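Here we describe the complex-level prediction in full. Unlike the single-chain runs in Section 2.1, the two entities below were treated as one system.
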Amino acid sequence: MSVKENNEVEQWGIFEVAIEGSAAGNPFLDNTFTATFSQQHRAIEVAGFYDGEGIYRVRFMPDTTGRWSYRTDSNLAELSGQEGTFEVKPAGRGNHGPVRVANTYHFAYADGTSYKQIGTTCYAWAHQGDALEEQTLATLKTAPFNKMRMCVFPKHYAFNENEPEYYPFPLLAKGSSKWTGNWDTVKGIEGWRFDFDHFDPAFFRHLEQRVGDLLALGIEADLILFHPYDRWGFSTMSAEQDDRYLRYIVARLSAYRNVWWSMANEYDLMPQKSLADWDRFFRVVLESDPYQHLRSIHNCRGFYDHSKPWVTHQSIQHSDLALTTKWREDYKKPVVVDECCYEGDIWQFWGNITPQEMVLRFWEGTARGGYVGHGDTFYDPNDVIWWAKGGVLKGVSAPRLAFLRKVLEDGPVEGLEPQTGIVRGMRPIVVGKAHDYYMVYFGNHQPAVMQLNLPSDEKYRAEVLDTWEMTVTRLDEDYSGAVKIAIPVVKPYQALVLRRLA
Amino acid sequence: MSVKENNEVEQWGIFEVAIEGSAAGNPFLDNTFTATFSQQHRAIEVAGFYDGEGIYRVRFMPDTTGRWSYRTDSNLAELSGQEGTFEVKPAGRGNHGPVRVANTYHFAYADGTSYKQIGTTCYAWAHQGDALEEQTLATLKTAPFNKMRMCVFPKHYAFNENEPEYYPFPLLAKGSSKWTGNWDTVKGIEGWRFDFDHFDPAFFRHLEQRVGDLLALGIEADLILFHPYDRWGFSTMSAEQDDRYLRYIVARLSAYRNVWWSMANEYDLMPQKSLADWDRFFRVVLESDPYQHLRSIHNCRGFYDHSKPWVTHQSIQHSDLALTTKWREDYKKPVVVDECCYEGDIWQFWGNITPQEMVLRFWEGTARGGYVGHGDTFYDPNDVIWWAKGGVLKGVSAPRLAFLRKVLEDGPVEGLEPQTGIVRGMRPIVVGKAHDYYMVYFGNHQPAVMQLNLPSDEKYRAEVLDTWEMTVTRLDEDYSGAVKIAIPVVKPYQALVLRRLA
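The structure predicted for the assembly as a whole is:
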């Protein structure tokens, strides 16, 4: 029985049932294993999975407190008809449940706590071995990020030439009749072909450990299910194998409350998949996930149609954050610009913007009612670059993003919505909550004066934020109605925040 | 006879004939006065103009050296049949003739010298009285600008409340039967109505003086013929009055070799004019100007159709210089982004970008094969803001633009054309002359390494330009073929220039 099975679990925690069963044949393909979890009128059927060595598991994330019961079902007699009960206690400190879409364009945890996304990207951090992975976790512990974009599959790309410690599938025995094509020699290993009809549970246990590590740090794991950066064949499996992989990973990981599903990174760089494939992947995940974790798909150039009903939010690659306004209007879903270029100094132009520009893009996306993602891509003698492998941050934007996160967490819980009519002039970027909170972001502009039309019967306190120096300067006066506000210092990267007093 | 009439003038100088004639009736409307200037097989008919006090003038800018003759014609006997000859000497130092379009996307003076446009804007500088106007000229003397955008008519706008010293038209006598509407009181002057059927020559003589002052400084005068910022009625004359004004100013000023004609500033903010009016204005100017000075029209939001044959170049307002590439392709004419926001600190967002951003926009437009314009809009206790009134520059971008101008003047005379295939990567901005000169502009990017594919049988020297610090660092090595070039310092606002050695 699993270490995680006990008779008590907290709300949005993981309750697990593990049962020994036959390992004959191919248990991944041949055997079914599910459990129905019940409380009062509710009955939720959850798929289990084979975890190797004759162990079958099923995991459940209860969303209500109180007594729950379960009953298993399987084609194998020994896995079928097992019953039990368990008690769900209130969520512990720091456990707010999974993140959901809230107020159309924003996010909140299941308990209603608002979630202000400050994401980062370490695509292949969980494929680097314990020493580096633990360094990454240590970095994250004091970093501002509350979301990590990461690939399930290992990554083959510039600066990413090393082999991972684990693979999701076992290697085929050389000469196996399951493979009739050529046997390649890759990185010195002859006959490099994976058996896509079996999973390697060790790979997934390791992935779960890292997702759990993020959970402990309060970080959402935006799991990228497919990507084009592949030398192992994981991007060119058959449709049946793709779908089986999706069901397997959803069965294993959906009980982790911090999981988000990203169908792909740069789906449009994968000619081996059609749009119908992506639609099907969304449907498979949607049908398999009892908890309906957030679902999206990330582009390189052209967008997938975010208006499709299974897309919960927009995961965008684009360097022009001014378009956030348009994307909100186009799709009426939260905008997360996960890639808008990264702070760094590598030769690739997507990976060498200045820290000032990285911070500016976060603020511009924010001040247009969206959310933005970070990356750190500085040359490293050992090719350990945060954006792919984790390690340490070499850039200086992170503390500024911590400042932004604090500003957001001190702002309206509902999220920042575009505001019009408050600031005189055509181009200011204004966001907030009407009659409560207004934020004007100046970006590369440096006005010495702002002319505002605040509601005349309301009084506001004014703060000038230096988004680069991370300072908040409260202005001496409070304001009401049509006012001119002098900005004390003429410089870029400032914002003006108005908070209602009365 | 005019002071300017003598028997000798230099090529592209101004030869003028002045004759006394009847001042009876309304000489502006009633009398015609032209002269035909002849040399060998050529005969050029040029319109003259009434300059007040019984003096009629006709001006001619000869474009070839040698002996020319003229003969006048008029409905008045005393202005008709006057003949003379004069000698055109070679152009003097600094006189390269008028600026023309060259190589589709670029400019050159008539003598073939290339012209690298670094423009500025002082809309109403010539309406501020001698003290301030002379200060403006003193500033221009050491500034990098070789083009001035300026309005013919005075300007009514924020920070522009003062009355000009001269008006283009005389005031109507109160109670005149020529005006049947209301008599307004404007700025304390009762019965403020202009007589659009007469010109005030003093106004135009003053304007000519200032255009001549710019000519002496080597600065092109981009004369804005109409604009919406009006409290005097100059934007709402009748079609007949508009056309008469255009013919009058062309007759007076087209012999100044540094004149460019801008039909309007923000033509699309003038609902009183239709697109057909703008087409007609172009045609009137085109038909009246014997020298075919450059012609354009400046937008606020939507563009006039720059593909129309009478448009010589694009005069654009837009803040996204990345679109320069598209505008070149769309219209196949030179792109001059005359307004991309101004360095300053006023509350209007078009007038408060940082100097870094101003310089960045110049470089981005340049590095995409276009030209850019400057403005300086800092608060002033007396509302003397460079962008409208001239005076002194308060910003710090100008020396950086001088550096850019020097870089351009040290580059290919033909102008910089977009180059592909030279730099590895998707986003670098590369411009130059194939097999001779390549410039890669980094902008807000800070690569530590560039990967280039130079022609393999050619050798290039490499310079790193810091466009903000105004330094040029020659790299130790010369380069050929596929190379990695280390950029010594990781910082923004740099460019890499490769000049062919062999």
